Amino acid sequence: MAAAASILAAGIGLGTAVTGGRQVASGLLRGDALTAFMLIVIGSVATIACWAGVHHLDDEAAAGAGTPTTARRYLILVQLFLATMSLAVLADNLGLLWVAVEATTIVTAFLVGHRRSRASVEAAWKYVVLCSVGIGIAFLGTVCVYATAVAAGAHGTTALNWTHLTSHTAGLDPDLTRLAMGLLLLGFGTKAGLAPMHAWLPDAHSQAPAPSPPSCPGCCCPWRSTPSGATRPSPTPSSKPATPAPSCWSPPSPPWPSPRSC
Prior knowledge:
Blueprint: H1 2-17, E1 24-26, E2 29-31, H2 33-62, H3 68-90, H4 94-112, H5 118-151, H6 162-167, H7 174-192, H8 200-207
Antiparallel strand pairs: 1-2
GO molecular function: oxidoreductase activity
Protein name: NADH:quinone oxidoreductase/Mrp antiporter transmembrane domain-containing protein
Keywords: Cell membrane, Membrane, Oxidoreductase, Transmembrane, Transmembrane helix
């Protein structure tokens, strides 16, 4: 949770530093208002997910579906996932962006197959295959961008920098640039789950570990989730009369009088 909170704090700090259209650039990294917004979104969602993930791991351990090894692996993968996502939004270089997105694909594949069941492993393989195809298409688009940037006079790693590309748009080959943008849209769109390359999304989202918030002790709410493969304990027989189970919601009393009171 500390890493998620750090990302959130970094996004807020960057947002205050880039007010008025200013930018913060350092080598292959760059920060602007959009970067600050994305970091705030990533940090906010990650903070909530990490907080709920602790209870999710506790529930898995209590149900016998998790071990300290699986919990440690899950936490490490989450930290790597946050790092790669942050790198993707901070990248000022298209090549570095491609590397960061590919890294998120690798880490996410292990998260999807976290439970190591047949369904989760199948979903992870489908995710890897389809997203790898998309990343390969995006790589071809990156190569095309590099080729047209070099033809426009760029050199070395600066040829793929966003700042360089935006300042030399007049010298880029229009046809090759259109081809590159189409390949990049199709490639990165596959990773984003855009149709028609979205077949991996339902399986991956259904099999990935989904943290659930803690509920009140003894609560029988139907929306309380349990770890995969875990079953709720059945009540033990007792000679005492059954008492109604606690509930988080009770129906309101009717506003009309009962027939007996009439």
